[in-house]
Write a structure and sequence with these properties.
By secondary structure, the protein is α/β, with parallel strands linked by helices. It has helices at residues 6-22, 71-77, 95-98, 101-111, 125-135, 137-146, 210-215, 238-247, 251-261, 280-288; strands at residues 32-38, 53-58, 61-67, 85-89, 117-121, 156-160, 165-169, 174-180, 188-194, 199-202, 221-227, 265-272, 294-297, 302-303. It has one domain (27-303): Metallo-beta-lactamase, Chain A (4-Layer Sandwich), CATH 3.60.15.10. It is built from ten helices and 14 strands.
Length: 304
């Protein structure tokens, strides 16, 4: 081995230092995490399942889809840091999907959120955001003054969606929306997330929809609401029964949608009726009549 001169030693050391300096602090994690935070359907609290909410996590960045009651606690139970939330998407303005929209942002800020959050959904999302901040202004003022927290309002950037098309795109995820049919709601949306490793589609609340089929075409995962008409209570008021049957998708039709869209995995969520709980096989059997791919019955905090 040749003699190491002082010049060679210094040159080697400088090169090594440069390599250390440019080496990334951590590897980019291309794997998306899909977490079903709440899988119940309907506006009232359920003993067996939490209210509708989902999270997609990519490289430590969290995208929340729907904000049913208790979504912040469900994220905590799933081990997802509230400070990692960067985007929140609302499918439609029914209380089981948006009751904790403002609360999630307030609680995340009361924890450790210091970065902006972009929020997306149908009108009147801008007005809802403004009124929520007004309603909680006394609490916000105290925490900004006594706890040294940054102003909350400038961290929340709401965007109203008025129809189909690309909603947002960042360096990790592209999100596309499509109108779906959920009668009595002026605008209900489904969302498709094209992540680095796979595509994930959320139906929101809808009856069987050709727009959803097109949005979900060849997707890796379709997270779809599901209804078992035979389990609806016989004493249910006629108006409520009509609304449920006209506004949601029966299990057999969910199978048809998934088959026509040619998705790889179908995840059943927003289970109606939620109570009393039905065995997984009862939800899957009607779906299997039309869909031969992988079927997963959603449960709270299930990660796929």
């Amino acid at each position: 081995m040749g003699r190491v001169t002082r010049r060679r030693f210094i040159g080697t050391a400088c090169a090594a230092a440069l390599l250390v300096r440019v080496r990334p602090s951590r590897a980019f994690d291309r794997r998306s995490r899909l977490i079903l935070l709440g899988t119940a359907g309907g506006p009232t609290p359920k003993p067996s399942r939490a209210a509708p909410a989902n999270a997609v996590v990519v490289d430590g960045r969290t995208y929340v889809v729907d904000c049913g009651n208790g979504v912040a606690r469900q994220l905590a139970l799933a081990g997802v840091a509230l400070a990692s939330i960067r985007h929140v998407f609302i499918t439609h303005h029914h209380s089981d999907h948006d009751a904790d929209y403002g609360n999630l942002l307030l609680l995340a800020w009361g924890d450790a959120l210091r970065t902006p959050v972009e929020t997306w959904g149908p009108p009147p999302l801008l007005r809802m955001t403004r009124l929520f901040l007004q309603m909680n202004q006394a609490d916000i003022d105290v925490r900004e003054r006594d706890e040294g927290r940054p102003p909350l309002a400038p961290l929340i950037h709401p965007h109203e969606i008025h129809g189909d098309g690309e909603v947002m795109r960042d360096d990790l995820v592209r999100v596309t929306a499509a109108r779906v049919e959920h009668p009595l709601v002026p605008l209900a949306l489904a969302y498709r997330f094209d992540c680095p490793d796979r595509s994930i589609v959320f139906s929101g609340d809808t009856r069987a929809s050709t727009h959803l089929v097109e949005l979900a075409r060849n997707a890796d995962v379709l997270v779809h609401e599901v209804l078992l008409p035979s389990r609806l209570p016989p004493d249910m008021p006629d108006a409520v029964r009509r609304h449920i049957l006209n506004s949601h998708t029966a299990a057999e039709d969910v199978g048809r949608v998934a088959a026509e869209a040619n998705v790889k995995t179908l995840v059943l969520t927003h289970l109606v009726p939620t109570e009393p709980p039905a065995p997984d096989e009862e939800w899957m059997a009607p779906v299997r009549r039309h869909f031969t791919g992988r079927i997963v019955v959603g449960h709270d905090l299930l990660e796929l």
